[in-house]
Write a structure and sequence with these properties.
With 503 residues, the chain is an alpha/beta fold. The protein is 50% helix and 12% strand. The chain contains 22 helices and eleven strands. The chain starts with a helix and ends in a 12-residue tail after the last strand.
């Protein structure tokens, strides 16, 4: 079709003259743009099919973008968008005057065929706009690489490029928009059916600890879970245990269409901002080989123990647990790296050790630590929803816990508690009475010491996980068994649950 626009503007980008000059024009399709606008002007119902994902910026020709924007504004206001009603908006538009003035609007409407293909025209325009944006990203990468500011390093440029590409990939999904309640209902029923069929009746990913799973229903996709506690309570140990259990249970099902469905467990991304990757690996080896981590670090192991370590290490080689021990990461860097891992390997769980070591943007940091933490927690919750995976973030507690007689943590003890408590779906506290009671040991060979020893016997090896907040479940306390020298958590077996012994 010989379009009116090309007839009126022979020097428009994409004409034959560009090819003769050896210039590659950006991808575009003026005919699709004209056909879409014409369809909208003939029947405004066509706009309903496309305005959910198509924006004026997606048009290659600027005058088409302005016409589309004006027509969309009229339709949203409940008014008629037609060549006649749009005429007053474009009578003095210099670009439109150059190609025929308001009469061009009438020609667009006259050349329109049907609104049936309006969505296909819009998707063509969107696809070409995405390709043009991809070219822009590539150009920005080249220019930034040639003229890199002094304060930026190559890895900063890589992360910036990855973020731009991922944002572009996410935009390519056209957005979900509204969905019928029936669709959401079907998804909820599918989730319930999946939980019914799965061992243990969990709707989320099992964390490997039965009592905690029963209280949480598993680790739910898109949830932000906060695990908080004072130093030496075992936060990192519990997070490492959960990460290992999820990775060990990973069971993918490769389908004929090339996609992968995860039947159980998941790929784990562990951001360790405090400990090195070797220290985390040592903890897991210690737990699985049942050899104290201190003996492993110092090399004080027997030949038999060394063989056990080798066997465990070989079994752990293929574990889908990925550790990023880079210190001082920003929330933007965490998001970029998590997106990259999901794109390359898949992703089922993100663990961050710990929240207060993350950095926000420089602008928020200048406004104060509370604003910076608020940006971090909001970003983590948004990332959990975006990637549709649970994010387990560890957090420190304020020192006011130590000033109380009852040192069991509360929501008010969270540092910068406003944002953390507000954004989190689940807030858990880890508490070991053994730690505090052990610091109050009376003098030996006294009645007080005997009473203290009885109390110690009851709490030794017992850790409480206090669920202070849960959006979709009950709060309460879960008791776990903790073997400190092995940094190993397990299900607690109470004396009154032990089986009867017979002579």
């Amino acid at each position: 079709m010989e379009t009116a626009l090309k007839q009126a503007r022979p020097a428009l980008v994409g004409s034959e003259g560009d090819d003769e000059a050896g210039y590659r024009s950006a991808p575009h399709n003026l005919e699709a743009e004209q056909a879409l606008i014409g369809a909208i002007l003939v029947n405004n119902d066509a706009a309903d099919k496309v305005t959910g994902f198509l924006e004026p910026a997606h048009f290659f020709e600027a005058v088409h973008a302005r016409i589309y924007e004006a027509a969309s504004s009229l339709i949203r206001a409940g008014k008629l968008a037609s060549p006649v009603t749009l005429k007053t908006y474009f009578e003095r538009d210099e670009t439109l005057v150059e190609i025929g003035g308001p009469a061009y609007l009438a020609r667009l409407a006259a050349a329109a065929t049907t609104i049936i293909n309006a969505e296909e025209y819009a998707r063509t325009i969107y696809e070409l706009a995405t390709r043009r944006r991809l070219i822009d990203v590539g150009t920005e990468i080249v220019n930034d690489s040639f003229d890199t500011p002094v304060e930026l390093q190559a890895r900063d440029l890589i992360e910036r490029a990855e973020q731009a590409l991922y944002e572009l990939a996410e935009q390519g999904k056209y957005g979900q928009g509204f969905q019928p309640f029936g669709t959401a209902l079907t998804e909820a029923i599918d989730m319930a059916a999946h939980a019914y069929q799965r061992d243990g009746g969990l709707s989320g990913i099992s964390c490997g600890l039965k009592d905690l799973d029963e209280r949480l229903g598993g680790l739910q996709p898109s949830d932000l879970l906060i695990l908080a506690g004072r130093p030496a309570m075992g936060k990192t140990s519990l997070a490492t245990n959960i990460a290992y259990a999820v990775a060990k249970a990973y069971e993918p099902e490769h389908r004929a269409d090339g996609t992968t469905k995860v039947l159980n467990g998941g790929v784990v991304a562990f951001f360790s901002l405090e400990m090195s990757a070797e220290q985390l690996a040592t903890r897991i080896i210690s737990e699985q080989a049942e050899i104290p981590s201190e003996k492993i670090r110092r090399g004080k192991i027997s030949e038999d123990e060394f063989h056990r370590i080798v066997e465990v290490s070989q079994a752990l080689q293929s574990l889908p647990l990925y550790i990023d021990a880079t210190g001082g990461l920003t929330i933007a860097q965490v998001a970029a790296r998590a997106r990259r891992l999901k794109r390359q390997r898949g992703l089922g769980l993100v663990v961050i050790d710990y929240l207060q070591l993350l950095a926000g943007s420089s602008r928020r940091a200048a406004e104060g630590r509370v604003q910076e933490v608020s940006e971090i927690t909001t970003g983590l919750k948004a990332l959990a929803k975006e990637l549709n995976v649970p994010i387990l973030a560890l957090s420190q507690l304020s020192r006011q816990v130590e000033a109380r007689d009852d040192k069991r943590p509360q929501l008010a003890d969270l540092r910068e508690s406003g944002s953390i408590e507000q954004d989190a779906d689940v807030v858990m506290f880890i508490y070991r009475e053994e730690y505090y009671l052990g610091r109050k040991e009376p003098r030996p060979n006294t009645p007080e010491h005997l009473e203290w020893q009885d109390q110690m016997d009851q709490v030794t090896g017992v850790t409480e996980v206090i669920i202070g907040k849960q959006r979709h479940g009950p709060t309460g306390t879960v008791a776990l068994q903790f073997t400190a020298n092995l940094t190993k958590f397990g299900n607690l077996v109470r004396d009154d649950h032990l089986p009867d012994f017979h002579d």
